[in-house]
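Subject: for your reference before the review

Hello V.,

The reviewers asked for a structural picture of the protein, and I figured it would be easier to keep everything in one thread rather than splitting it across files. Below is the amino acid sequence we used in the manuscript, unchanged from the supplementary table.
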Amino acid sequence: MNRADLPPAARVGDPLDGVDTPALLLDLDAFERNVARMQAAADAAGVALRPHAKAHKCPAIALAQVERGAVGICCQKVSEALPFVAAGVRDIHVSNEIVAPAKAALLARLALHARFSVCVDDAQQVELLASATAAAGSRLDVFVEINVGQDRCGVDGADAVQRLLDAIAAHGELRFAGLQAYQGSLQHLRGHAERRAVAARAAARAADVVAGLARAGVACPVVSGGGSGSVEFDLVSGVYTEVQPGSYVFMDGDYGRNEYTDSLRFEHALFLATTVISTGGGERIIVDAGLKSLAVDSGLPDVWGAAYDYVAASDEHGTLRPRGATTPLLPLGARLLLVPGHCDPTLNLHDELIGLRGSTVEAIWPVAARGLSR
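And here is what came back from the structure prediction:
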């Protein structure tokens, strides 16, 4: 026997209780409301929505977002874009820098099949992209990434941007498409007012660069950035013309702990189904979902709708404790739903996402970009 002989975790039409665990579940009703709510907010603000596919790695989700009105998607790595191109997504922004010739060559070939853009923050990257596109006979849109407070990638100031624009202009295969201005660390600041203040500072830094370019006679077609934790501020900043939220489709545990206004409060849609496999001699609850089923870099998962806390994770096991002395232990075989703390790396642990309408399996979507991190 081999892996092909493994029975599926679920089939369309199965009840929730029939899904083998651990299994990653998507509440389709909540997911669809999240997609519609974000698109409506972007439309109302007159800002383009380019959701980040690194959050879900699932072409079916990207196609649903584009069908609703998204202008395209973001990917964080070049290889991650492959299954989205194969599924028919035709506008993809690689929101990262690349320096390896093999990656540049792959990106240039992909650009023969879809519109692609990529970030730079150094002239060496520009030369690499120019060489690869010239060899492939393709064209690339190029975004100059600016540092607006993340202190990760990106250049500082309009003068540094201008030097890169000069490098880009020397190559007919490349086109300056705009600025990427992403401040990732603010996405997880819990307080609404604190998040708003840091988002305002990031937007002001981006606006300064745009203004500096304008004084030099350079128009900036697009300013792209933002995320699920800052998007309500980014949409009304007057600076961003395009936003890149990703996790809003799922609303994982970490994002769920932020404070939001009611207008952009998204629903938990992603869950991990797990089963009680031991009661530890009557003292604890052990479930079959551990580190190989969910990521804990943003905290342990929440137990959905039950008075238990997930207190420890090992490779294949999770330990739960009742919250109160009168809360009974769960019996063997009991099912629970967990809300993962961080959706992006959790999706990267699963081959498929099981979509439920109510308590019935309606769809099974491959997580086709799983593991594509080159």
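For the response letter, the relevant points are probably these. The CA atoms of residues 150 and 183 lie 5 Å apart. The radius of gyration is 22 Å.

Happy to draft the paragraph if you're swamped.

O.
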